[in-house]
Amino acid sequence: MLDVRKLRLLRELAHRETIAAVAESLNYTASAVSQQLSALEREAGVPLLERTGRRVRLTSAGRTLVDHAGTIFAVLEQAGADLAADHAALTGPLRIGVFPTANRAILAPALVALSTEHPRLELMVTELDPILAPGALRTEALDIALVQEYDYVPVDVDPALDTEPLLAEIIYLAALSPGALASHQRSQWVAGTPGTLCHTMTVRACQAAGFTPRIRHHADDFGTVLELVAAGQGVALVPELGARATPPAVALTPLPTQRRTHIAYRRGTGTHPAISAARTALHSVIRRSRSG
């Protein structure tokens, strides 16, 4: 019989592409990952990996097994959710991942509601860039997370996860005076750290307007971004949640593009009482915010 723990390693290899990355994500050594994958090949009775020098890729049999692994893990998660539903009260840890601008505006009031209604839940929050959240969910470092995508930066569907829409935000051009995006092709820009969704969104939105931005400053906190704009250090793209404390000197021009936030969790866990309670609390925050 195939070992579920080894299947998890194979699935992560399909996502992360190198044994070193799999080892880092799961706190294993690379040699331990290699040994476990070799053992899985022996259990399967067919080659699952093709090794060329230091590179490893999945064979067709390996990809087929990864597809089946997704179903297996979802069934196991659903079984755990069904068992948890028999408990009278919600207890134990609930690990939540959130990106910075959603922490204060969305998650904080949701945590108040969860703590009040379910005092025995052990709420554990990790702030991280949403590009890292899917991997943290797959490896069970997180149980539920807020993830996002921009019109110009669609996110690939992860078959290991279920998602549901939570919030859509306007994207603003932040500058010292109102104006069209195309008018700033010679301006200096402030953008997120390279590799983040915010940085990619800025580059692609400007390219769609016909130019590549000249990025002078990198900052991931939108409060810092807006202060840099107010100081005349450049212009920037800022989503609605990040623009709540805009300095008086900064003009915000709405653009025809959006940032969309989704709630994400592992397939099969959506009906788990703790996950369900968190989903309800998050949606309630958005409803109150919009009605207010």
UniProtKB/TrEMBL annotation:
PROSITE patterns: HTH_LYSR. It holds the Pfam family LysR_substrate. InterPro entries: LysR_HTH_N, LysR_subst-bd, WH-like_DNA-bd_sf, WH_DNA-bd_sf. Residues 2-59 form the HTH lysR-type domain. Keywords: Activator, DNA-binding, Transcription, Transcription regulation. One of its GO terms (molecular function) is DNA binding. GO terms for cellular component: protein-DNA complex. The keyword Transcription regulation applies. The keyword Transcription applies. Belongs to the LysR transcriptional regulatory family. This is LysR family transcriptional regulator. It comes from Nocardia uniformis.
